[in-house]
Structure prediction request, 440 residues.
Amino acid sequence: MPATIIVGTQWGDEGKGKVTDWLANEMNMVVRYQGGHNAGHTVIADGHLLKLHLVPSGILFPHITSVIGSGMVIDPKALIKELDELGKIGINNPNLVISSNAHLIMPYHKILDQASELKLGKSKIGTTGLGIGPAYTDKASRVGLRMQDLLDMKIFREKLATALDFKNQVITKIYGLEPLDLEEVVEEYQEYASRLKDMIGNTVLLINQALDSGKNVLLEGAQGTMLDIDHGTYPFVTSSSPIAGGACSGSGVSPMRIKRIIGIVKAYTTRVGSGPFPTEQDNEIGEEMRKVGGEFGTTTGRPRRCGWFDAVIVKYSAMLNGLTEIAITKLDVLSGFEKIKICVGYKYGGEIYNHMPFHQTIFHNCTPVYEEMEGWQSDISRINTYEKLPKAAQAYVNRIQELAGVPVSMISVGPDRVQTITRKVPENLVRRELQRQSSP
Ligand code: GDP
Ligand code: IMO
Ligand code: MG
Prediction:
């Protein structure tokens, strides 16, 4: 049975949690493949509002096996807190398996993340401050501690002693902060180990065996394509690979086993933290989007920067991820705007760029080229078929589809599971998409 990937196409917070939860009903397994608790995925179902950070967004379904994949970085304290929160709404002992290869976020990662941001001052990345970057740095430097180290505290202690020796020098000598105490950290993580040890397992085998036996597996991305370490707006990115390619490495699933790649596309654009954002509306338009769309960070509470839909970015995402379909989210938030703009290119130095420019100076300093579309004035949040949407909303959806070159199979008109419209993808578009993917 082939696997499905859900991937963010913009700068995160596209509504991946909502769509994952919605699709989870027909899945047997949901796997998070990268990132850590920097992610904040909101799921609203059966009267519950859940803000998930580490746990996959299929957790509400008892029939689902939830997997934390090897590409993730895990703060065990944050994970236990999340499990406790789930327990409060009756989800006790969820069927959750954590990869033994996933890396641990250690207390010094958080300290170093925050201290480095402070030092950068105006040039800061605007990270979540949760230690994500330093944890991935240690992974790449091969000095990280992993979930499996929690199963042997003797090894854990040895590895930690080596790491801490160096980290404490940086913490004290570069940043002038207090050093961490080895015994205190060991004691803290010993407690986490006793709570989590039974959940640590061989997730690569588990996922592949599930696929072999015909089970439906969904790989749930965090962050978004423009935050990708290789292909995003570097250095204003996260430290992992949220794109579809990252789904394979972060879960241990071969690209040959992927059939559907669903791009989650917010009907406008948002971004949290620093970095270029050509269509940003730092004015009453952006303010309106933020207010109506509730655009405040799920993890940090920071106001999200808001702007018009950028088709150049989504076209770039379609190419990088090989999207087979698109789910448009938050279409309801645009109701009431008289005119709606779509960015179809960037103007810079007398030239027009219709593709993502290869040099970031262009992206930083370009002026968006906009198309203007008619808005719609009625509430669409209770509409459940595409045909009942106002004609202007239909035209907007179809224009996104045309510009991205990928069929729109889902339209979300509200945060609740039930506020989702599905539509059969027109056959000619599927053909065009398949042709696009097979052409050089
Ligand atoms: P994620 O990180 O991609 O999972 O997205 P977040 O959960 O951080 O942010 C999306 C926000 O939009 C959440 O508060 C969702 O409840 C909400 N949301 C998702 N889909 C829709 C939608 O179609 N309409 C509206 N109004 N809100 C939505
Ligand atoms: P979800 O999964 C939006 C952003 C941070 C910052 C940059 C680097 O909910 O879509 P990091 O802490 O990862 O080193 O911060 O990435 N960022 C996100 N923005 N949604 C997210 O996750 C994000 N996770 C990280 O704001 O700009
Ligand atoms: Mg989010």
Observations:
- The pocket of 6-O-phosphoryl inosine monophosphate (ligand 2) is lined by residues 8, 11-13, 38-41, 125-128, 130, 132-133, 222-224, 227, 238-239, 272-273, 298 (CB under 6 Å).
- The chain has a mean pLDDT of 95.
